[in-house]
Amino acid sequence: MTSTFLPDKRSGPDVAPPPPAVASARGRARRRTLNWLTAVGFQVPALVLFIALVLLPMLFALYAAFFRWGGFGMPSDYTGADNFTRLFQDPVFLGDLWRCLVLVVLSLALQLPFALAMAVALNQRLRGRAVYRMLFFAPYVLSEAITGVLFGMVFAPDDGLADHVLGGIGLDGLGGEWFADPSYVMATLFLVMTWKYFGFHMMLYLAGLQSIPAELTEAALIDGANPWQRFRNVTLPLLAPTLRISVFLSVIGAIQLFDLVWVITQGGPDHHSETMAVTMFQYGFKRYQVGYASAISVVMFGICLVFALAYQRFVLRRDLEGATTTMRGAGK
Amino acid sequence: MGDPALSRRGFLAASVAAGLGVTALSGCGGDSDGGSSSGTTTIEWWNISTTEPTKTVWAGLAKKFEAQNPKVKVKIVQLENDAYKSKMTALTASGKLPDIFHTWGGGVLKQQVDAGLVEDLSDPTKPWADGLLPVARQPYLLDNKLYGIPFDIGMIGFWYNKALFKQAGITAPPTTWSGFLDAVRKLKAKGITPLALAGKEKWPGMYYWAYLAMRTAGVDALRKADDAKDFTGAGFVEAGQHLKDLVGLQPFQKGFLGAAYSTPTGQAAAVGNGKAAMELMGQWAPVVEADAGKGLGSDLGFFPFPAVEGGKGAITEVFGGGGGHALRKGAPQAAVDFLKFFVAESTDVELVKKTGVLPVVPAAESAISDPNTKAVQAQLKGATGFQLYLDQAYAPAVGQEVNDSVAALIAGSKSPEQVAQSITKTAKEEQ
Description:
Chain A: It is a multi-pass membrane protein. Chain A: This is Sugar ABC transporter permease. Chain A has 332 residues and is an all-alpha fold. Chain A contains 13 helices and 2 strands, in the order H-H-E-E-H-H-H-H-H-H-H-H-H-H-H. Chain A has a single domain, classed as MetI-like fold. In chain B, a hairpin with a 4-residue loop joins strand 1 and strand 2 (41-47). Chain B has 2 domains: 38-153 and 320-387, D-Maltodextrin-Binding Protein, domain 2, CATH 3.40.190.10; 155-319 and 390-429, D-Maltodextrin-Binding Protein, domain 2 (3-Layer(aba) Sandwich), CATH 3.40.190. In chain B, the strands form 2 sheets. In chain B, strands 1, 2, 3, 4, 7, 8, 9, 10, 11 and 12 form a 10-stranded mixed β-sheet that branches. Chain B has helices at 4-23, 54-68, 81-94, 106-114, 126-129, 134-137, 162-167, 177-189, 203-217, 221-228, 234-248, 267-272, 285-292, 333-342, 345-355, 371-381, 390-393, 396-411, 416-429; strands at residues 35-36, 41-47, 72-78, 100-103, 141-142, 145-146, 149-161, 193-195, 276-282, 300-303, 317-327, 385-388.
């Protein structure tokens, strides 16, 4: 799979290698075997670790999802697809799916555009822009657990910083119970997520913006394009590959969201901020219904897999094949 | 320009994380060795006293026992609470337990007994175990046989701020549920938050429902309902209704649904800082109140959970639990000797004084100096019935479902009937 992306393969049959000398054919074959052995030698340790610690446990989770199993000994109480039928009748899990969708939509509609705007702003000549870049990126470096504890205190009803600040500027009415209010918990959570992650996407975009040759923007300027046109028709298309990667990471992140939620609300109040990963943790490690928790993890895996494959197939394909310059099949 | 490695890695990371949650569980093995070598007997003692001062005090007691019994060596294995629980589950599955091990009694101990792994202590401890505080032995009595010896006992009750009660004109702590609701109304009328509750953690809310169920349906109801896998009896629905009445008065602090228990903005701190008048909590409450908040000092008082008018339960029945030790089947006589040593009056006095546990030997109660601890002790001593903490009495899934459903009732999304049905459903799913 990897080799098809390599530029030398893409150059195609018309750039054929020079005809091999007959005398060295055997030596070449031996060298190829040696190369192959070297490659295998280097891969085996990683492969063994990957199979033992990733692949087998994943397959085991898939197996356990069809059992009622408390997590100790081997699963023996086979229940067929019961765990999955129960899962899709569980209002909490259906709520998880809905909340996941909400987070994905909010991330794509608000968080990423915000990150893009900040990136474009910080790509201008600006006094102290390095400081701003660092400041905005800093939250991403902070661990999720620390972020959770921090914002748990910031948004503490009455005593928290948020309510004090709002009170201080005469907006007491906007203060509330934040994470403790079932109606506002998701909005507050999204606020924290944006604070935490927009810097990362901003950095991605900045890197993308800096790889856009200044000549193109200048040419557009000479052609009389206004700032919006320059952004819309020059910057954005050339930034598209970065955007696509950023969207991918953002969606996968939303599907897997766990640590922030666990530290701040544990999914509460009354399941209003629960995510699939939190539900899985509750059943696996609190209730010891490991079979059911495995079923949740299998569904999560399935969602990630389908999304990742579909996204690669339909969205990232253009990037993987060399953007606009090379057509599919040219490498064959 | 695109970077295939990045996207693949992202994809892999996603897939791995999804599968990984379950991985960690399958990795728990078990190993244990004990037994004797020539001449001296070595007994292994597994406990969860990993914090000071208990750790040092217990190690000192083991030394003292060794000095009294030269042919016995005590090997201490200390594990942190949660690590201990999962290790013991693995050991139970493997079929071999340590000589002496920590137990909370109840359902987990019963599983180990049913698997034939625990020594019946009824006869070996015959004369001296009868002298222990009756309520402290309750968690380890299964089918009238004693499987464990307690070293600590405690209970849940209301901890209240005497100054705030006085301010609201409440002269004496309420002894009935309607009296309690009146007190809540009086406090509210004075602008005082009557109750602090850690809604985020769910288990503190469960205490209300469990106590109300004991008071309405009777002290045996919770155990019987678990055995019968049926919580839909009238008493349980009634308990939920009483709790709903309380919730209807909006007695809890602002934002209680998101509050934790022991954090600086949590339940214990709200009481410890005088922001709320009461909390329903175990005998450890004063320590946590002083730790997370300022603490109330002499303003802090204790009263038992009130009786419910017309209910089958009495105000003298307690909801609580403690800590004890059990022996593996076939443990050496030295292990029994050690248990006897551990509840000797001199040992218990030392434990009460130095580690802050409540006495399990009636004579050791003279060692208590704190008036609130004395009040709890008096309540325990006069207890006419006992219900073990639900997370120890019930299977984990059932215990969690009780917490979860009661939390939903308090948040207003489940009715008393739905709480009873949800718990019943989960209880039936477990076997």
